[in-house]
Amino acid sequence: MKYEDFVCMMQTQMQERLGEKVQIQLHQILKNNSVVLDALSISEEGSGIAPTIYLNDFYRGYQEGTPIPDIADQMEALYRKSRVTVPFDTTFYADFGKVKQHLACRVINREKNRELLKTVPYRIFLDLAIVTYYYFEDSCLGTGTILVYSSHCKNWGITEEELFACARENTLHIQPEEFLSMDGVLEKFQGCGEAKAETENVLPMYVLTNKTNYFGAASLLFDSVLQDIADKLEDDFWILPSSIHECIIIPAESAMPKEEMQEMVREINRNEVAAEDFLSDEIYRYQREFHKLSL
Fold first, then answer.
1. 76 near 61, Cβ under 8 Å?
2. Contact by Cβ (8 Å): 146, 133
3. pLDDT at 199 exceeding the cut of 60
């Protein structure tokens, strides 16, 4: 079955399962790095929140042999898990006084997001762009983020300078940085003693992210964070962007030739990193004495 036919079939299947009281619409959603995904938004009367189900991964499952009824079951279960059953007031987002303490910064690739950057406030940072987002935590919705567009600033009646001042001040409070050895990362995410043994006596590597490991590469924006790392390492260091969520840190004294590090980054980006999580193929160096981060 062709992808277009699959999309139409799943929209029909969901409409039949959920009934006429819900409205199901197909959207194309622009994600980070100009990745465009197809999604079904499912809205119910009286609810201000419409759960979104992305179809691309489900189609891959179909191609790998998952039957259509099973895919429909998975999509229905996902919807019922994410639907909001109590009234939720979304008007708060129109009031800058209510959102400003929840604004934070993130970094994205500048070249791959040229179209997006025409619609959002941003600042240039190395080969990257700094953008802002609203971070929310809710007992019903869980956690999530909303990208800030230029239209939001206009509605709030604020300047871009005010926006970035708030976001920079909040970022490390909302998403505190976390600096871990590679062994520490393996222990945190795998709880595996054997993995630790395999990393001993090799090139010393560390990971810079944040407590949630979400948009953690934004920690690069703060000299206080970078200087603290340099003090701990007692050395300058290289930064290898792993994704928008984390970076690899290698002490300058222990580093391999920079050409090899750059090739390693590009190889990982080609083979390991999801398209929408890609940050950069470049590598950066932090000079401790001058408090300087550069390409």
1. no
2. yes
3. no
